[in-house]
Design goal:
By secondary structure, this protein is an alpha/beta fold. The protein is 27% helix and 22% strand.
C-alpha cells in the first residue's frame, strides 16, 4: 500500500489486485481529515496487507473517530477489526443490512455501531457527511459519502475500472489512463460488478444519476479507480451506456484449466 493526498482534506490508502484476464484493479481506502477523523473502508484482508501501518503514515490510528464502511464486502473490510483495536474511540458507520451481513462472519460490537441510511448525515465536528446510494453497486448495504465542504464524492464501487498496468491502477489521477481505454474498462466493470444493470428501465436508471449530478462533485473517489478530479461529465456519460454494454461472461472450467496449464513450468 502507498499513501497520498487526493485533496488537502483527504488521504488515499492505495492498494490493488491483479485480476487475471481483466487487468489491475485499484482497492482504495480513504481518510477524511475532519475534526473527527473518518476512515472510509479498510482495504483487503490478505496476510501481507497492514492497513493500520499504512494509516499511521497519515494519521495516528488512535485519533480515528469514525470508520465508514461503504459496504461489507471483503475488499472493504479487510483491516476493520485491527483498526477497531487500534482506534478505541472509533465507531463503525454502516446500515442495518450491513451489520447483519457482517454478523455472519465476525459480529461487530453493538456499542460501536452507528446505523446510517442513504439521505442521512453524520456530524464529524467541522462538517456533515451525507450518505447516498450510488447509481451502480454490488451490495444492498452500499452507502457512499458526499462531503459538501469539499465537493468530494466517495462512490464506493461505482465508477471503478480494471486498468491495464499496475502503474495506472496506483496513479494519483485517473487522467493518467487513456480516455478511450478508461471508458471501455468502466463499462466492463459496470457489467461485472452490477450485472443487474442490463435489466433496468433505461429512463429510471438515467434518473438515478440526477442527485449526484445536482451535487456537482469536483472530486470523485472510487474504491476501484484512481481519483477523478475536475470535469466529471465523461464518467456520467460512460455509465449511462452501461445497460446496453456487452454482457460479461466469466471464464468457465475449461478456461480455468487452460490458465492453470499456462502457469505450469515447461
Amino acid at each position: 500500500m502507498h499513501t497520498y493526498r487526493a485533496h488537502q482534506d483527504i488521504s488515499v490508502l492505495s492498494d490493488q489486485l491483479e485480476v487475471p484476464g481483466l487487468g489491475f484493479l485499484a482497492v482504495n481506502a480513504f481518510v477524511i481529515h475532519a475534526a473527527q477523523p473518518v476512515v472510509a473502508d479498510t482495504g483487503l484482508g490478505l496476510p501481507d496487507r497492514d492497513l493500520v501501518a499504512a494509516l499511521a503514515e497519515v494519521i495516528d490510528p488512535a485519533d480515528v473517530r469514525w470508520i465508514w464502511l461503504t459496504h461489507p464486502d471483503r475488499d472493504h473490510t479487510g483491516g476493520l477489526f485491527a483498526l477497531l483495536d487500534a482506534a478505541p474511540q472509533a465507531r463503525v458507520v454502516t446500515t442495518f443490512t450491513g451489520a447483519g451481513i457482517m454478523s455472519t462472519e465476525h459480529p461487530l460490537p453493538m456499542d460501536r455501531i452507528y446505523l446510517l441510511n442513504p439521505g442521512q448525515s453524520l456530524d464529524v465536528g467541522d462538517r456533515r457527511l451525507t450518505g447516498f446510494r450510488p447509481p451502480l453497486f454490488d451490495n444492498p448495504a452500499t452507502v457512499g459519502i458526499l462531503d459538501t465542504s469539499t465537493g468530494t464524492c466517495l462512490s464506493s464501487d461505482c465508477f471503478g475500472a480494471p486498468l491495464p498496468t499496475s502503474e495506472l491502477a496506483s496513479a494519483h489521477d485517473a487522467a493518467a489512463a487513456d480516455p478511450g481505454e478508461l471508458r471501455t474498462a468502466q463499462l466492463l466493470w459496470a457489467t461485472v460488478d452490477s450485472p443487474w444493470v442490463h435489466s433496468v428501465d433505461p429512463a429510471r436508471y438515467a434518473a438515478s444519476f440526477q442527485p449526484l449530478r445536482d451535487f456537482g462533485p469536483s472530486v470523485i473517489l472510487s474504491t476501484h479507480l484512481p481519483p477523478v478530479t475536475g470535469n466529471t461529465d465523461a464518467l456520467f456519460a460512460t455509465l449511462l451506456d452501461a445497460p446496453s454494454a456487452a454482457v460479461f461472461t466469466g471464464p468457465d472450467q475449461a478456461a480455468l484449466e487452460a490458465m492453470l496449464r499456462d502457469f505450469q513450468p515447461a
